[in-house]
C-alpha cells in the first residue's frame, strides 16, 4: 500500500473538477481557487486531536476552550493522552466542566491508546481512509463525521465526501437547483464524478451553502424547505 502524503495538489483538483462537472465548475469559477488548508502543514497528534474533538462536542468554541484550559491545568500538560489524563480522577474532570458522557469517552480513548488501538500519524500514513475510519469510530464519542473532518482538514486526504454533513448537502442542493438537499445516498452517487478529489469538491460545497459565489446570474433554488 502506498504512503499517503498530508495534503494534495489543489491545482490538479481544480482542473479535474471543472472538467468533470460543469455546474460545480461554474460555481468554482465564481468563488475562485481555494488554497491548500493550513492544517495540512501543522503538527498533528491524532490522540490529542480526538480528545479535543470530544471536549468540543455540542459546545460553543469559547465554552469548550475554557473547559479544555481547565483540563490542561489539572493534568499539567497541553498533551491530552492516556498518561496525562491518567493523572486526574473522574471527579477532577467533572470539576473542570467535563460531562459524565465525555469523561467516559476520554477514558475509553485513553484505554484504547494504551492498548495500541489508536494509530499514530506514522501508521496513518500507510492506511487508507476506510481503515482509519474503522480504527477510530469504535472510540466512544467519535463518529464517522469527526474522523472525516480529521481526514480532510488535518491529514489532507483528497477523496473524502462527508455525505451526512448538512452543509455539503445544501451546497449540492444549490449547485443542482434542487428543492431539497440530496440524501446521503444520493450525494454519494452524485459525488462519483468528483473522485479522486471529493475533498476539494466538499470545500466548495460548504462555501456555496454559506453564500459564496452568489450573484444575480447565479442559479437559484427553493430554500423554503431549509
The fraction of residues in strands falls at under 5%
Alpha-beta content class: mainly alpha
- How many separate domains make up the residues? 2
The count of DSSP E runs of length 2 or more, i.e. the number of strands, is: 0
Please explain how this structure is put together:
- The protein is mainly alpha-helical and 226 residues long.
- It folds into two domains: 10-39 and 159-210, Endonuclease Iii, domain 2; 46-154, Hypothetical protein, domain 2 (Endonuclease III, domain 1, Orthogonal Bundle).
- The protein is 55% helix and 0% strand.
- It contains 13 helices and no strands.
- The chain has helices at 10-20, 22-31, 46-56, 61-75, 82-85, 90-95, 100-114, 121-124, 129-136, 144-153, 166-176, 184-190, 198-209.
Summarize this, please?
This protein is mainly alpha-helical. The protein has 13 helices and no strands.
Helices and strands in order:
Layout: H1 10-20, H2 22-31, H3 46-56, H4 61-75, H5 82-85, H6 90-95, H7 100-114, H8 121-124, H9 129-136, H10 144-153, H11 166-176, H12 184-190, H13 198-209
Helix pairs in contact: 1-2, 2-13, 3-7, 9-10, 11-13
Entry keywords:
226 residues, mainly alpha, Endonuclease Iii, domain 2, Endonuclease III, domain 1, 2 domains, disordered C terminus
Amino acid at each position: 500500500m502506498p504512503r499517503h502524503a498530508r495534503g494534495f495538489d489543489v491545482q490538479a483538483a481544480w482542473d479535474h473538477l471543472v472538467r468533470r462537472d460543469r455546474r460545480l465548475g461554474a460555481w468554482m469559477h465564481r468563488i475562485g481557487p481555494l488554497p491548500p488548508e493550513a492544517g495540512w502543514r501543522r503538527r498533528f497528534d491524532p490522540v490529542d486531536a480526538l480528545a479535543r474533538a470530544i471536549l468540543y462536542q455540542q459546545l460553543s468554541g469559547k465554552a469548550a476552550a475554557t473547559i479544555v484550559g481547565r483540563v490542561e491545568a489539572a493534568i499539567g500538560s497541553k498533551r491530552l493522552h492516556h498518561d496525562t489524563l491518567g493523572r486526574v480522577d473522574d471527579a477532577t474532570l467533572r470539576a473542570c466542566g467535563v460531562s459524565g458522557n465525555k469523561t467516559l469517552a476520554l477514558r475509553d480513548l485513553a484505554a484504547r491508546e494504551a492498548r495500541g488501538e489508536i494509530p499514530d500519524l506514522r501508521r496513518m500514513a500507510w492506511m487508507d481512509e476506510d481503515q482509519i475510519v474503522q480504527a477510530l469510530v469504535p472510540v466512544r464519542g467519535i463518529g464517522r463525521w469527526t474522523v472525516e473532518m480529521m481526514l480532510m482538514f488535518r491529514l489532507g486526504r483528497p477523496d473524502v465526501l462527508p455525505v451526512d454533513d448538512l452543509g455539503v448537502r445544501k451546497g449540492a442542493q444549490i449547485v443542482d437547483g434542487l428543492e431539497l438537499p440530496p440524501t446521503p445516498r444520493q450525494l454519494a452517487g452524485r459525488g462519483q464524478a468528483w473522485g479522486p478529489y471529493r475533498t476539494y469538491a466538499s470545500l466548495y460545497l460548504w462555501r456555496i451553502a454559506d453564500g459564496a459565489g452568489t450573484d444575480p446570474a447565479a442559479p437559484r433554488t427553493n430554500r423554503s424547505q431549509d
